[in-house]
Amino acid sequence: MKVVSNNDVVSMGVAMIVVVMLATQIHMSQAVTCNPAGLSSCAPAISSGAAPSRTCCSKLREQRPCLCGYLRNPTLRKFINSPNARKVSSSCGVPFPKC
User: Fold this and answer.
1) Average pLDDT of the segment spanning 60-71
2) Ramachandran quadrant class, 87 (left: phi over 0; alpha: psi -120 to 50; beta: rest)
3) For a tag on the chain, would you pick the N or C end, based on fewer CB atoms within 10 A?
4) Residues 6+ apart with CB under 8 A from 68
């Protein structure tokens, strides 16, 4: 019969916490629904170069995991990759994706 030390118990507890955190993070990243229409609140800022609204920035942060997919879409690429879209991204504090 093997004796379990306190260090073994602590190590197992830490490992379990890390697994739970990773599982939660994976679940959260899967919860994003990529919908380019959700970024419609950014259209005025992208078309005019004006400052983006709070709604725009919120939606942009929410859809950040989707941006590379949008850049791969020939129809969306011209909007996402425009100079004003880059300004909006910067103003919202969302790093422009490197895909």
Assistant:
1) 95
2) alpha
3) N
4) 97, 99
